[in-house]
Amino acid sequence: MSGGGEEVSNKQILLRDYVTGFPKESDMIHTTGTIRLKVEEGSKAIVVKNLYLSCDPYMRNRMKKPDAPPYADSMTPQSPVLGFGVAKVLDSGHPDFKEGDLVWGTTGWEEFSLIQAPESLFKITHTDVPLSYYTGLLGMPGLTAYAGLYEVCSPKKGETVFVSAASGAVGQLVGQFAKLLGCYVVGSAGSKQKVDLLKNKFGFDDAFNYKDEHDLNAALKRHFPEGIDVYFENVGGSMLDAVLLNMRYHGRIAVCGMISQYNLDKPEGIHNLFRLITKRIRMEGFVVLDYLHLYPKFLQLALQYIKEGKIVYLEDTIEGLENAPSALIRLFTGQNVGKQVAVVANE
Amino acid sequence: MSGGGEEVSNKQILLRDYVTGFPKESDMIHTTGTIRLKVEEGSKAIVVKNLYLSCDPYMRNRMKKPDAPPYADSMTPQSPVLGFGVAKVLDSGHPDFKEGDLVWGTTGWEEFSLIQAPESLFKITHTDVPLSYYTGLLGMPGLTAYAGLYEVCSPKKGETVFVSAASGAVGQLVGQFAKLLGCYVVGSAGSKQKVDLLKNKFGFDDAFNYKDEHDLNAALKRHFPEGIDVYFENVGGSMLDAVLLNMRYHGRIAVCGMISQYNLDKPEGIHNLFRLITKRIRMEGFVVLDYLHLYPKFLQLALQYIKEGKIVYLEDTIEGLENAPSALIRLFTGQNVGKQVAVVANE
Questions:
Q1: Is the Cβ of A220 closer than 8 Å to some Cβ of chain B?
Q2: How many CB atoms lie within 10 A of CB B38?
Q3: Is the dihedral of CA B215, B220, B226, B230 positive or negative?
Q4: Residue A289 forms contact with B (CB below 8 Å)
Q5: A14-28: pLDDT as tens digits
Q6: Which of A38, B129, B158, B341, CA to CA, is 20 to 30 A from B267?
Q7: Torsion, Cα of B321, B323, B324, B325 (10° steps)
Q8: pLDDT for position A224
Q9: How large is the ipTM?
Q10: Which residues of chain B neighbour A258 with C-beta distances below 8 Å?
Q11: What is the tens place of the pLDDT at every residue in B20-35?
């Protein structure tokens, strides 16, 4: 069976093989395939042109050999890398989508994608913001920050909030949301530039460069002499162990990610979990997919905050599909400053 | 200032010094002091005769040099060991207590205790059960099991529940409560005798001896092929790490204790916390002291279950105050079979 329309060439980034250890550009392959830009008669698929590709830490976990039980479906070697993105519909066999629609959701790392089950995509109806925001502030990372902070942690005015990887796609929003709730917010990041951004652009009360700290426990004690009520966990490892020593009674830890552990064969050991008891701490892992029903409510709030100038968002964009692999790897070297996006096309 | 009445001799067990490593009988000192069995004029204290002393794992943590922040107040070297117990009021300056009242709560390891702030004691009004039950089933361990299971985990009918240290003071109740809720319940313990008790006396669906299992992950997979919904954590360490690999989506872990870690200088590392994210697990530490307001409701339920024969309770009693130190140490060697109690006097 062949799709309708002419075949056109389609630049693609394929996963070479399951990744072990630190991801490298050579784990991904540049190739050029072909694709028909019309869907088959009777199919409910859509064909999209990919505009912005989202580079997110969780993708590393989908590049692993699938273990049981899987975190999310693993990517398939020799197939396009999968991730969130913003795309334009070129042709649709699905009644909910039509040519010209803009969507965000899971797509492939290629110029054009045939999406067999478009029901999981979100249609973009507010276009008076940068479209790339739907890979970040108004997309999966934004909803992640919102769900993790509001739903999992429920911080109250006056509480203390600590965010790790705080200048990243999620962290910068967690901090700003927490400030809007009236919390005292400190973030950690991995460079002086990022620390400056946290304090001066994102309005955190304070921030520190974890790479400059010999003793993370001491650093946290300095920043939270009275302890931490809410920790938004993005990194895992020794930072988590130090945070556990500094949590207050009835503290909440939203476990969103553990980027420091993703490239290790065996995760580091966490030694201070007895504090969960002594401080009556709730530690809860979450995945944004469980909160998609909140997206309309979140979107309304975020759009309003943007309009009122209450939220800013920093993207780190790299031009060209061919540069998407290096963009992804920047996440694990900490080179990205803000939400990492690869631009395939602007329209 | 001297108390009223004659001085009488008072056998006592003192803490020698802060304990490090595995507790030994020699960490406690036998001595004989004196006490007046009347309270001072105008005092709101009470004098009690101690009947049953409760031996509980958490006591080990109160024998440590106090760290910041403390778990519970550390005991004081050269002063009586502190713990829960059942006692009879000999004299009272407090309007809520009178001679002959039976109470349970924190007391000293000695024949007679002067309790300066008796407000924290519970008066025993139901005496048609063994009085020693107020150190276990109807006391702190019972309320711990109830609060941890009902309040922290909220298991639903048909869910799978795993309990470690399952034949202990708390574990045997957790399993029975969970069975009464309609759950599938498996427990682990450290001897064949305890495993038999779990299956045949306490009505667990299944049980295993963790000391016989080379691979705890495999043992849990065997007992929970579909995974664990609720884990009642009493032991910590490698069991916790194995449980994390076997939790189901949206599982709950009530962190009650980590007895395997209490005598270690540095707790073991836990490596599988990323599962909190992938399986959306909530892990929550709790301390029974936060649930004392539920005691009346719990007591009513437990008394009814006893009357209806729906709950059994196994105690391991040792006679004599002088044998209380060895009774306490039995908890850490796993020699106790059921709730460990030291009997000072029967009335």
A1: no
A2: 16
A3: negative
A4: no
A5: 999 999 999 999 999
A6: B341
A7: 130
A8: 98
A9: 0.93
A10: 273-274, 277
A11: 999 999 999 999 999 9
